[in-house]
Amino acid sequence: MGHSKITSSASADRQLRLDGWGFVGEGFAASSELLAWLTERLGRPQPFGSFDPAGAEAPAPATLPDLGCATSIESLDRLAHARGRGFPDLVRLRSGTVPRLPDAVARPVDDRELEAVLTAGNREGLRIIPWGGGTSVTGGVNPPTDAAPVVTVDLAGFSGLEHLDEVSGLATLGAGTTGPALEAALQAKGWTLGHFPQSWELSTLGGWIATRSAGQESLGMGRIEDLVAGLDLTAPAGRLSLPALPASAAGPDLRQLVLGSEGRFGVITRAALRVRPLADCQRVEAVLVPDWASGVAASRALVQGDVPLQLLRLSDASETQVAMTVGLGRSRFAPLVRGWLKLRGIGDQACLMLLGASGSHRHAETTLEAARTVTRPHGTVWLGAGPGRHWLADRFRHPYLRDGLFDVGFGTETLETAVPWSGVDRLYRTVGEALSQPSGDGEAPTPVLCHLSHPYRDGVSLYFTFFFRCPQDPDLAVARWAEMKRRANDAIQAAGGTLSHHHGIGAWHAPWLPQETGDDGWRVLRQVAKELDPHGILNPHVLLDRTDRLEE
Ligand SMILES: Cc1cc2nc3c(=O)[nH]c(=O)nc-3n(C[C@H](O)[C@H](O)[C@H](O)COP(=O)(O)OP(=O)(O)OC[C@H]3O[C@@H](n4cnc5c(N)ncnc54)[C@H](O)[C@@H]3O)c2cc1C
User: With contact defined as beta carbons under 8 Å apart, do 326 and 31 qualify?
Assistant: First the structure.
């Protein structure tokens, strides 16, 4: 069963923010409790400035040939397509130190126009960067500093519902369709995709496929690769048109080769998706467990016991502490609640779980009842639906919090991986230790929070959030972040985790990829890229480039 109605306030008249998340005038303020928690651990920060691009001079673009479609060389348009949304992107955008802008933004609206751009790219040796929503957190859409003329191809022209096969539950949509537009089109007809990454309001179908994205409800709905039944890809040397099929034994599955190809093998233009009828209800219940080990054991018991949950998320003790500090804050009930929990065996090491179920009211109720039974031996205390309702209401607003912290001078970044259940403890410890080292000389240890989500029968994803004082010098801020990122990538690989469970490889993880694929596997991927893009014009800086670009 699908998902109950999700709406977004995103509309055409909202203006995208250039140097932060989301839309101008919207936000999610950091509470005084969170700021106090961070200041206590890291010391007082220095506010990080904000740069006004309006009066700034952009470097003149390279002279380009006719690209065969609407093309803009307007400075603000180039700046708006210059960076993704990782920490260094925000530093560069906020400080006016973006090292490279695309020379033009091309906007093809159909296959013929897209082919014209790629033909010009082949002929003139251009670098072409496909752009979906620009929410990459791996440097995937950033023009490399050492590249020939760069054209960013905004795929917004490939938007909307093209076909709905209600008998098969298959919907074909353009790759540039954003999350809210996709759900609005489907929900108007009683269907849903149910793919809700936290970046849902801005990211696009093509970006999800290109990066092998996972939505927050992947446990019930599947990851994007489970939802894609067929797709079209236009490459500089040809086109793949892979029909929607329920399953096939006709050799290796080329769809799986396109999933995660990050614009290196071609431009995804449309996809046929497995959609479901909208559900009657969605419930998310909050549960406390005494500590991380019981929480991990309870999570594993739930998925290996086949309890049909839609969502499962377990915060470690630090993340729970922050949630409780922010949530309970100075409430006069806080001591009472803590006392009551202590009586139930829940103390300082408590970990918060969110468990979600959807479908008919009866199905959701039965599922949560089964979850109660399975988790009871692990010492759970059920808190009801209140915290879950808040989480659901705010989940797409959380990314704004990063900008609020930036304003006062705290940097924050997230990274994620996945590992078999037997490796969870080691990875949690190894990556936690690597990240918790001070971010620079004279700095305090870095506070690290973690949650477990996207569980599978054989393993799970771990998602880390860390905080540091952001130096006012943008190069130093990026250099410190880069050092933490290198340490984390090394630690993840040393502990047997994957470089990414859902953010992808982009430019920032690429030097570490050969260790995961093996040299022969990496060479196979290079050969595929060579076949589809012989002149290396599409995203040559991502996925298969070993250059360390963390500090660009
Ligand atoms: C606050 C925040 C929260 C996030 N939460 C999640 C999450 O919960 N789950 C998750 O999976 N990810 C998450 N991400 C990461 C990001 O949103 C995903 O990687 C997303 O899939 C990118 O989609 P996009 O349309 O923005 O792609 P872009 O950022 O525009 O592009 C990403 C990469 O794909 C390529 N590309 C884009 N469109 C196409 C196309 N049509 N054809 C070929 N290549 C293309 C680009 O060149 C680039 O290399 C988050 C990011 C942020 C900033």
Answer: yes
Identity of the amino acid at 438: P
**Distances 437 to 33, 443, 476 between C-alpha atoms, Å:** 24, 9, 17
First to last CA, the chain: 45
Atom of ligand 1 nearest to the CA of 214: 11
Q: How far is the CA of 548 from the centre of ligand 1 (A)?
A: 20
Specify the pLDDT at position 525.
98
Parallel, antiparallel or unpaired: strands 228-235 and 267-274: antiparallel
As annotated, the residues of the chain forming the CATH 3.30.465.10 domain(s) are 161-277
CATH topology of domain 64-157: 3.30.43
CATH 3.30.1330.10 fits 161-277, yes or no: no
Predicted pLDDT of residue 302:
98
Which residue numbers in the chain have pLDDT < 70?
1-12, 326-334
- Phi, psi (deg, nearest 5) at residue 538: -95, 115
Query: Which atom number of ligand 1 is nearest to the Cα of residue 129?
Result: 47
217-261 pLDDT, tens digit each: 999 999 999 999 999 999 999 999 999 999 999 999 999 999 999
pLDDT at 332: 62
**What's the CA-to-centroid distance between 203 and ligand 1, angstroms?**
6
The pLDDT of residue 333 is 62
For atom 49 of ligand 1, which residue has the closest CA?
140
Contacts with 281 (C-beta within 8 Å, 6 or more apart), sequence order: 4, 358, 359, 360, 361, 364
Please give the distance, rounded to the nearest whole angstrom, from the Cα atom of residue 317 to the centre of ligand 1: 29
- Tell which phi-psi region holds residue 309, choosing left (phi > 0), alpha (psi between -120 and 50) or beta: beta
The predicted pLDDT at position 3 comes to: 56
Out of 19, 211, 219, 227, give the residue to mutate to test ligand 1, the one with the largest number of ligand atoms within 8 Å of its CB.
Answer: 211
Q: Which residue, 526, 538, 530, is CA-closest to 114?
A: 538
State residue 258's pLDDT score.
Answer: 98
- CATH 3.30.43.10 residue ranges for the chain: 64-157
Quick one: pLDDT at residue 318?
A: 95
The rounded distance, in Å, linking the Cα atoms of 157 and 107 is 7
Q: Which of 170, 137, 160 is CA-nearest to residue 262?
A: 137
Query: What does the pLDDT read at residue 341?
Result: 78
Atom 45, ligand 1: residue with shortest CA distance: 263
Ligand 1, atom nearest to 209 Cα:
21
Nearest CA to ligand 1 atom 44: 263
Report how far ligand 1's centroid is from the alpha carbon of 340 (Å).
43
Q: Give the per-residue pLDDT at 1.
A: 44
Q: Which residues line ligand 1 (CB under 6 A)?
A: 84-85, 129-137, 140-141, 155, 175, 197-199, 203-204, 206-208, 210-211, 213-214, 216, 262-263, 267-268, 399, 502-504, 539, 542
Q: How far is the CA of 402 from the centre of ligand 1 (A)?
A: 18
Q: How far apart are the CA of 212 and the centre of ligand 1, in A? A: 9
